């Protein structure tokens, strides 16, 4: 278990074509506001929100990346260090749906396999939908991703998206810690003294016999006083 003094910070990138609602989603989640006015994101922007999950303090850093190709060289570098990702497309934008796999590859090329979720935004505009339910479900199945249909305007399922990513990331951390917990054993072959002969090493009254097994336990650093934030890169 991590010490209570440690705060988990998660960098989440929200990617997808322009005008799918990435900025609006982050604004809704972090500030609880919604605006109909579309303002193209230039480069990268981000907001933060502090939440608690299963007793863990989690600080989400949500990075809003430009979806336009002219900013691709800028935003690509900001994927680095990301620990979770939202792949977003719009109900009324066919091109954004077709581009999802491309966005997924761009992120994975920079950061590898991280928790991801597929999001179909603007489902309040279902009467004008250009993507069928079945093909959206099929894409999620193909990519093996959790799939949410959201409406930022109506604040539908937005919280669930980021809570799911937080749960996935915390589970990944816990799995890594669980793998470190068992005592690791390393077999020692022959131990040589300074004369080059095989024998027993005497160090501060501790003896290691030839062919014995030593136990290596993972070390863990405690923090005291004020909380410190850690971004775990897995």
Automatic annotation (TrEMBL):
The keyword Calcium does not apply. It comes from the Eukaryota. The lineage of its organism: Eukaryota, Metazoa, Hemichordata, Enteropneusta, Harrimaniidae. This is Ras-related protein Rab-23-like. The keyword GTP-binding applies. SMART domains: RAB (SM00175), RAN (SM00176), RAS (SM00173), RHO (SM00174). SUPFAM superfamilies: P-loop containing nucleoside triphosphate hydrolases. It holds the Pfam family Ras. Keywords: GTP-binding, Nucleotide-binding. Gene3D superfamilies: P-loop containing nucleotide triphosphate hydrolases. InterPro entries: P-loop_NTPase, Rab, Small_GTP-bd, Small_GTPase.
